Amino acid sequence: MAFGGWPAAAIEFYAGLEDDNSKAYWTSHKAVYEEKVLRPMMELLEELAPEFGEPKIFRPYRDIRFSTDKTPYKTHIGATIGGTAYVQLSADGLSAGTGRWRLDPAQIARYRAAVAADSSGHELEAIIAVIEKAGHEVHGHGTLKSAPRGYPPDHPRIGLLRHKGLTAWQHWEPAPWLQTASAAQRLQAFFRTGAAVSSWLSSNVGD
Q: Is the pTM of this model over 0.85?
């Protein structure tokens, strides 16, 4: 079937799970999860995959082995698309991101060198400006409180240099359009705009 949006029951399911994150709630509402949450996500990803890449849906169960929070279930459904894009549905609404949440040490070194260089650094600034003009956000992750070693604190792109990851991000509050096929269209528009961040990172940092 073609993706037709998430019904109101999907949002209600996660609102209930936030209130009662128990096996009893999950078991009694599993059919709702499978039909109203998981199935639309699978249909959405099937629609997005030809343009944006292979999808992967994350398991609904939390890894509680090393966590003080022992609630067993995630209060959202999330999936990656093509390795650099992400989509998530929760009681708070729909969210999407593209880029790199976390870079390894070698990638961080290449990222900072590219940000510091005038040509590639200005290119990234221009990309961010276009994304923000479209109404989306650009977030840094693992951001240092001060300048990274080897870079002056007054560097014109010091804010970008302090990041250890970079993503374009968009969040939509629950609204009637979420129950329609236009949800896929909004995601497509965002991923197309945000793809420039992923492309810059691939070119300058590596896959």
A: yes
